[in-house]
Amino acid sequence: MHSGELYIVLDSPVHRTGDLAKIYVLASGSEQTSVNLEIRDYKGVLAHVNLNVKPGEHVVHSLEFQVPKIPGKYELLLVNNGEVYDKVSYRVIEENEFPVEKYVVFTWHNHQAPNYLPSGKYYFPWAFKHVYEKELAPYGRGPYHYHALILEKFPNYKCTYNLSPSLLAQWTELIDKGVVFADGGSIDKSSSEASIVKETLELYRKSALSGQIDVLTSIYAHTIAGYIIEFLGAEDIIREEVEYGIEITRSVIGLEPRGIWTPEMAFTMKLVDIYSDLGLTYTILDQKCHLEKSTGDKSNHLEPYLVKGSKGELIIFFRDTDLSNYVSFKNNFRSELHAWKSAYDLAYKIIEKLDTRGVLTIALDGENWMIFAKSPPLTAYFYSRLVEYLVKIQETGYLKTTNHRELIDKWTPRRTLKHVPTTTWLCSFTKWHGEVKEHHDYWEKAKHAYSLIKEYEEKYGKNEKSKQARRALWHLLDSDYWWAEFWESKIIDIWLCEVYKQLEVGETYCRVEKT
Question: Are 406 and 214 in contact (CB under 8 A)?
Fold first, then answer.
């Protein structure tokens, strides 16, 4: 079996005392193989398993066993000729054990930059392709659509979504009017592609209105707020982008948002008053980059904290950095069997984190961990298996899946932080200012564009032209264009040009062709 795969998993990482549980032995090989295995527990040999594996074949062998009658942590070993090939851990809990307040909240950040030009024509199709394209075949279409189908498949699974306002706006435009691309292509509102986008949006809306998910609002154009406020002093820009984001979330989803996703977790304490004043209650930041460097009455990340500004206050949930990164970056599965085993391992890691009362938040992009994997379809298989395990654990009463809207109504923060640092989920801003040699010059251009808007408004007051210039500034500040690996100076230039055009400051400042 050295040339193949061999794993052992259970039907659930948690069982009640005396339950009948299922063991699954998962095997594959590149050549004809016959293998004799032992499954051992703490008493010795539990069972013998003989497998014949054909080249390229996946074999799933199942058998039942009775879990121990004494609560605790247990392990099964998969052994061949005295060599341990794999092992699986599980937990046994009392049949009449009183449920403890243990919650896990997956928070999926589904986002696309506003991928259109000032003319309204689109240059990138990702807001739509990641819905209807068969990127996850044979398990599903694009990740945005697949996430929605998982919600429908597992109605007892609860979680939180940020459906970014710029993503919702693009979906709505396609559904209502259709879209045109700069290269001459288009997607008609009556097309099958638009129909799939509409179905996807309706599934999210249905899940939100039923209470299965909470939908976070966000800053419209995914702006790195902490940096914009501290570098540009542009609190007014962030405030109006948040207001616009709330308006979109409210109108498209049909709920008043209570939480907000802070793009790139780019936080500054100045956001507390902005968020609070606009009626927002909570956001999500990072355990290692934010909580561990905060000051105040601090414990671990398994509880929400209260943070007070000069006028308002905000509840902050801190995501588990390790588990969030496990999903984000350890997702290059070799096969369905490997993805299945990985889903079990993550489910067990989750129950290990929640040994006592607590809230475990796992937060990451909803699409990038899937589409950037070596085999995107296997991430879909992994996710379905993971949710299946979470639902089974939930049925034992060991923990509950939930969303943050429910949590803030039942879990009052016991601790208050005095200060949370100005940083991101990467613990710095260098990915957006520093890793590309042009970064500095472009941030100076952005600062100058903002100063031109302020000068214009001091002279003429706020009017339609300055409003459009401000919206152009939102777009050029979208963090996706500044991210080092996806640096898009051409797009930034186009929106800079639009700022100058609206303010009528002359062609001197415009370095790109008109669009």
Answer: yes
